[in-house]
Design goal:
Blueprint lengths: L2 H6 L14 E5 L12 E8 L2 E6 L3 E6 H4 L5 H10 L1 E4 L3 E10 L10 E2 L5 E3 L2 H9 L6 E10 L3 H7 L3 E5 L2 H4 L7 H8 L15
Parallel strand pairs: 5-9
Antiparallel strand pairs: 1-2, 1-10, 2-3, 3-9, 4-5, 6-8, 6-9, 7-8
Amino acid sequence: MSEKKLLTENAVRTSINGFYKGSLLVSTPGMLDPRFSRSVIYLISHNEKGAMGFIINKPIDDIQLGDIIEIENSNKNIAFQKKNTVFFGGPVEFKSGFLLHSTEYEIKNTSLKIDDNFCLTNDTKALSDIIEGNGPVSSLFMLGYAGWYPGQLEKEIKEDSWLVVNADPELVFNKSHSEKYNLSLKLLGIENAYFSSDCGRA
């Protein structure tokens, strides 16, 4: 992914009627919950009833997709595990799996189109299609999600726990998971070296 492209685009996300569905949340040093430290979260919903999103930059080292879905062919299982990472999507309903993916793929009456770049599917058929090479071009599989009750996320943003930025699909589906946090900061014109816990709040 071109960092020049990221830096030249208009990155700061403006709210729609006060809400940020389809945006990225980037945690700040003011985030006190260690589960969300240095997190980048894609928001699939945000309205007067609350918000829901997925952490997209925290792989689970000891779980592979092959551990979750039964694969008959052992050779296919090995190849599948090598190229598919499972992410910690958040602390809510950790045993539930969700596939965030590009929009050229969908399962009728099951996939939820979030916007022009992202869909969400909660169906093992999508994983089977990925194994067979018929799945989405880009995808992330997550266990659990992050959730906020009404008004909670707005409060956390005002308290400087989160920054909000446009969700670039090249960043969201970037294979360099460890770089997503720094790239998100660069979208906002922030160098991580200067973004330390020593920074004060406005």
